[in-house]
Amino acid sequence: MLAQLKRLGGDSLLYALMNVGTKLIAFIMLPIYTHYLPNPAEYGVLDYLDRITAMLTFLVIFGTDSALAFYYFDTKDEAKRKRYVQNVMLFRLGIVAVCFLAILVGGQWLSNALLDNPNYAHFLYLSIGILLLDTVVALILTVLRYEFKTLKVVIYTVLKMLLVAVLSYAILRYFLTSVEGILIGRIISAVVVLLLISKYLFSYLRFSIDKQVLKEILKYAAPLVPASIAFWVIVNANVFFLKEFTSFTEVGIYGTAMKFAALITLLTSGVQMAWRPYSMSLKDKKGSEHVFSKLYMAILLLGTVGVLFVATIMPWVIKLLDQNYYEAYKYVAPIAAVTFLNFFYMIISVGIFFSKQTKYISIAFGIAALVNLGLNFVLIPLYSIWGTVAAYLLSYIVAIILIFFKSQKAYYVPVSFFKMAFLFSNMLLAVFAIIYIQESSLPGIYILAAWGYFIVMTVVSRVDRDFRKKPVTAET
């Protein structure tokens, strides 16, 4: 077990460093983007395009990431592993081709319907090109991650992000001061990285489908597709409501807050990338449930402290942007709380993946998506961006509750749901107190009082008992 924990720790550290690097690069680029796109409505168009691409990415992946993770570790046959990857590659490229044809045929009409301007059709063409390149790069890096070639994954990922930053800045400054310049920078960076990993690409690019292998993959993956659609609805539908009920200016402000909220992933993303192979490797080991119980609580504590930290520093951090974007600071921490839940559901759903009951994730997020749509429809006309934030947070809480209890039935982990809910709820109370204090320009001592409240509530919950349970007896 010690060796397994060392592997998780080592891989998580490397992935954390990678994500710190990429997030810092993205963080540095945001002020540059807002400088060259000083009108929040322009940035709103870019954010809107990213949402559309995110939807298409869910369709392209079609749940095959989870299926590949399962079957890759379920067999020791290297040739069969390669066939799984090859078929996933062909399937994803096929979906991209369908999307490309749709945009090619209806480009101007789609541009007018989605972006309120038929002359933005070339933005859609560039976005589908980015989707194609990112699809191939992402799958190759996924396989390298499954093979525990962590350092290579880190190098290629950071390099790609760095190229995006440098090329986008150069194009914005010297050639095109528009959304188009940013998209072109993304395409060139993806091409460069793809050339660097081409030796892996040729190994997995095979223009022949193994029907039996593809059937296995899709049988596992298909139940997750509704979940992917639900994910997209929960994360992105609010932006479409926001655009329809308000304008691209509000979309730009909200999109900016979303980017800053990603700061919380500096704490979680390293674990997220290492979690799937690590948790699957413990599937059949005796006593693993005790390891998971400690990890559940430790990760929750780390995330709640991270969200509070984001809430505390955000008014000073947001000043890096153009003044037109300043109001985004007050939405960042609540969105960061949701960003953490988006990661945490993967941690607490091990039972669902172990038992192959992946369809329940689709059910849970499907219910959450319906809640999200209803809340957006009611709250956004009344409260604008705050309505969006509330719908986003509440729908994720619904999904987390449903997934946790189903996972516990499939694979019991000795951890208290009440205690976890208590910690998260008190973190939210402290966050909203901090935002109110900042909005009211009250003395900083009140922010310290909010932190003090959270710390006292954490002590009262006796979370320390969860880390002093009987020793782990799992075999290594």
Automatic annotation (TrEMBL):
What is its subcellular localisation? Cell membrane
Coarse class of the primary localization is membrane
Instruction: For this UniProt record, give its keywords in alphabetical order, as a comma-separated list.
Output: Cell membrane, Membrane, Transmembrane, Transmembrane helix
Q: Where are the membrane-spanning stretches?
A: 12-32, 52-73, 93-111, 123-146, 153-176, 182-205, 217-241, 253-275, 295-318, 330-353, 360-379, 385-405, 417-437, 443-460
Membrane-related topology note: Multi-pass membrane protein
InterPro entries named among the record's database cross-references: Poly_Biosynth_Transport, Polysacc_synth
Q: Which species is this UniProt entry from? A: Litchfieldia luteola
Protein name stated in the entry: Oligosaccharide flippase family protein
